[in-house]
């Protein structure tokens, strides 16, 4: 029995995002628990052999095995899909499992994919190393150049793949324009929305077909678990994604799903406050270093486009100092902000992309993405921004800035 379920679309359709983040997808067990139950089970028992057969044939609704379904994971899938405004969603073990599944479930040898050049390092490994090994052609374009997407389309183009804002240069893809080009050519768009989340940006409302996530970042939001998600139409999820993930097994653990469910309850609060804090920190840094890239600042080259798509600038920025020595010196002088390559955490974290997250790429690729030796990426957390500014002020001073 499910009491006052958050899964009835006739009810949830009326709910606003903050309500969906707390209650969307909730399915209560016979015990009527208020907090979502954690079903740590790999299998399910049947009342009789006939029920088992009916479950496997699809004649009977229900769970069969946790690689395929799990009640806790299903609650998270429904909540994320509701927040995204998607018909359906599927969770994965990590963001990279989500990206890999979203691409491989729909691409075959002979197909062509166009991807934005500025992306998370492992996403570029998918486009540059993995897909070509299976005969999938890839063209890399400047994602912020809308005309470049159109110009790269071929008769066999199947997918556009991009992040916006992109990691770590905060480059913005014009969602409405690029998705319209894709639609005109019957191409599917896959948007990685990790930097914004549905709290700041809903790519589907601009025409994106698939939204893929690292839920490790802002959705968990407290640096605890790895998770990923892919949202799309019911047809995409049921016909393409499900057969791929059920048989290859990039399944999310119920425990991690439960942690992310708890994280989503405070998504809106955290993202709004962290964006406010980031804005204060970005304004301080702008007066101190040669260059700051933050979508919320007027100085961001695509500031107007960013704010047309996002309700705030987000939690992440990049700043530029002279070189690697100065960047490492600044990191080593920090007392409050941690040296860490994670993002989306409620703690402020800073990393040097060229020697960490993007070190696997060649120097030429890094340069084409705008990742210099003096670039640092900062994730702004929930600490008091005045303490963050004090820490940065002291650390910058110690390297002569
Ligand atoms: C972190 C990240 C990923 C990968 O997610 P994992 O959960 O670490 O596997 C993909 N895309 C972007 C934009 C990211 O920031």
Features:
401 residues; seven-stranded mixed sheet; 12 strands; binds pyridoxal-5'-phosphate; single chain; five-stranded mixed sheet; Aspartate Aminotransferase, domain 2; alpha/beta; Aspartate Aminotransferase, domain 1
Structural notes for this entry:
- It is a single chain.
- The protein is of the alpha/beta class and 401 residues long.
- The protein is built from 15 helices and 12 strands.
- The chain has helices at 9-12, 17-23, 49-57, 71-84, 95-104, 121-133, 146-152, 175-184, 234-248, 254-264, 267-286, 303-309, 324-333, 363-369, 385-398, and strands at 88-92, 112-116, 137-141, 157-163, 188-192, 210-214, 228-232, 291-293, 316-320, 338-339, 349-351, 375-379.
- The strands form 2 sheets. It has a 7-stranded mixed sheet with strand order 1-7-6-5-4-2-3, with helices on both faces. The protein has a 5-stranded mixed sheet with strand order 8-9-12-11-10.
- The model has no long low-confidence stretch (mean pLDDT 96).
- The chain binds pyridoxal-5'-phosphate.
- Pyridoxal-5'-phosphate (PLP) is lined by residues 94-96, 99, 120, 122-123, 163, 167, 192, 194, 214, 216-217, 226, 228, 343.
């Amino acid at each position: 029995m499910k009491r006052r379920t958050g899964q009835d679309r006739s009810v949830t359709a009326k709910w606003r995002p903050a309500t969906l983040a707390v209650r969307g997808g909730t399915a209560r067990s016979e015990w009527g628990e208020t907090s979502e139950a954690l079903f740590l089970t790999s299998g399910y028992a049947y009342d009789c052999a006939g029920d088992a057969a009916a479950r496997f044939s699809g004649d009977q609704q229900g769970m069969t095995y946790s690689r395929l379904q799990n009640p806790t994971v299903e609650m998270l899938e429904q909540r994320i899909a509701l927040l995204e405004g998607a018909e359906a969603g599927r969770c994965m073990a990590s963001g990279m499992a989500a990206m890999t599944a979203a691409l491989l479930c729909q691409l075959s040898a002979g197909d062509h994919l166009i991807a934005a050049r500025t992306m998370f390092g492992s996403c570029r490994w998918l486009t540059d190393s993995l897909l070509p090994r299976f005969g999938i052609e890839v063209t890399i374009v400047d994602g912020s150049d809308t005309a470049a997407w159109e110009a790269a389309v071929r008769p066999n183009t199947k997918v556009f793949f991009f992040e916006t804002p992109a990691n770590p240069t905060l480059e913005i893809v014009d969602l409405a324009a690029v998705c319209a080009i894709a639609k005109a050519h019957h191409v599917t768009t896959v948007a990685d929305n990790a930097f914004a989340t549905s709290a700041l940006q809903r790519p589907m409302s601009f025409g994106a077909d698939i939204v893929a996530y690292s839920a490790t970042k802002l959705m968990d939001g407290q640096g605890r678990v790895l998770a990923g998600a892919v949202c799309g139409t019911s047809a995409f999820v049921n016909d393409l994604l499900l057969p791929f993930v059920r048989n290859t097994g990039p399944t999310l653990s119920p425990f991690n799903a439960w942690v992310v469910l708890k994280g989503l309850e405070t998504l809106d609060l955290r993202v709004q406050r962290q964006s406010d804090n980031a804005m204060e920190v970005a304004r301080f840094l702008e007066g101190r270093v040669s260059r700051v890239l933050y979508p919320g600042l007027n100085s961001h080259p695509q500031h107007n486009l960013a704010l047309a798509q996002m309700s705030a600038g987000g939690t992440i920025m990049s700043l530029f100092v002279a070189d690697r020595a100065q960047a490492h010196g600044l990191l080593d002088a920090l007392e409050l902000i941690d040296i860490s390559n994670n993002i989306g955490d409620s703690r402020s974290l800073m990393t040097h992309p060229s020697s960490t997250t993007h070190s696997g790429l060649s120097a030429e690729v890094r340069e084409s993405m705008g990742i210099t030796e003096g670039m640092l990426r900062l994730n702004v957390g929930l600490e008091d921004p005045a303490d963050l500014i004090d820490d940065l002020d002291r650390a910058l001073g110690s390297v002569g800035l």
